[in-house]
Amino acid sequence: MNKLLKTALFAGGALAAVKGLDTRLEVTYETVVSSELPEEFDGYKIVHLSDYHNDTIPELIPEIREEDPDLIVCTGDMADDKGTYLPALNLVQRLVKTAPCIMVTGNHDLWRADYEQMEKEITEAGARFLHNERVFVSRNGEKLAIAGIDDPFACEEKRITAFLQRTKEELSEYDGFEILLFHRANLLDEFADCSFDLILSGHMHGGHVRIPGIGGLAAPRSSYSSKESMFFPRYFGGRYEMNGTVMIVNRGLGNPTIIPRLFNRPEMIVITLKKAMS
Question: Which of 21-25, 79-83, 203-207, 217-221 has the lowest mean pLDDT?
Fold first, then answer.
């Protein structure tokens, strides 16, 4: 192999590595159109965050402020299962100054020995956790339903399925546009029989290593109990549709492992709701 070819290969590899290890925040835009959406919520903007894991994302707050959202939602794992939760608390304290903030738990959150104290302080900061319940956001007399389901806090498939079945029965169907917040995207097939219009999820970290043109490489260890293979998971990030439900999976902001994210920049998703023309 001549020197010129070696140099070209080295330069190409170096450029690919630089691009692959890019840790700058990526803002993804999604539009969800529905005839069920109340007219007053046409143009309603939601910022979706997930899997912060106490990381450092310098561009995050300025980007959120630039978007001027109506609502911020967080779909779990704002902190790690060990160590301090103060970065997550500090982030929420800044988020609520921009827009109302609604959250659900992730597996790393619930694995913390001091989870209850963490939630107490985040709630006191002004955010709202949803625990297998539905709340309503009002706008000029009309309302939008937002449901939130806790992380199953289990590894066994039977326990997870029983938990979700019981929770879905408790929430029952809502006659109107409804958004569901739920952490584990690998379990989205469990909601195939539900009537949610939009499901926002996280947990998968984009497959951690993303192979351009193919997808995410591996599911998190805590997802191995699902029926999907741990390699090339179906719901690793992005937009999916199932039985009329739009499902948006956030690749996450942080990194809970020592392995660097590859071709997988931290992600913030901006979702605009649009009323379908009759």
Answer: 217-221
User: What are the phi and psi torsion angles at 59 (to 5°)?
Assistant: -80, -5
What are the CA-CA distances from residue 33 to residues 44, 71, 92, 249 (Å)? Answer: 11, 17, 29, 17
CA dihedral 50, 95, 89, 235 (to 10 degrees): 0
Closest CA to 47 of 78, 66, 69: 69
For 118, what's the count of Cα atoms within 13 Å in the CB-facing half-sphere? 30
Spatial separation of the C-alpha atoms in residues 47 and 270, rounded to whole Å: 5
- Distance from C-alpha of 164 to C-alpha of 156, rounded to nearest angstrom: 13
In angstroms, the CA 178 to CA 173 distance is 9
List of domains in the chain: 25-275 (3.60.21.10)
The β-bridge partners of 125 are none
Map residue 134 onto helix, strand or coil. Answer: strand
Question: pLDDT by residue (tens digit) across 25-36?
Answer: 999 999 999 999
Instruction: Give the Cα separation of 222 and 275 in Å (integer).
Output: 37
To 10 degrees, what angle do helices 86-95 and 115-124 make? 20
What value, to the nearest 5°, has the Cα angle with vertex 103 and ends 100 and 108?
Answer: 145
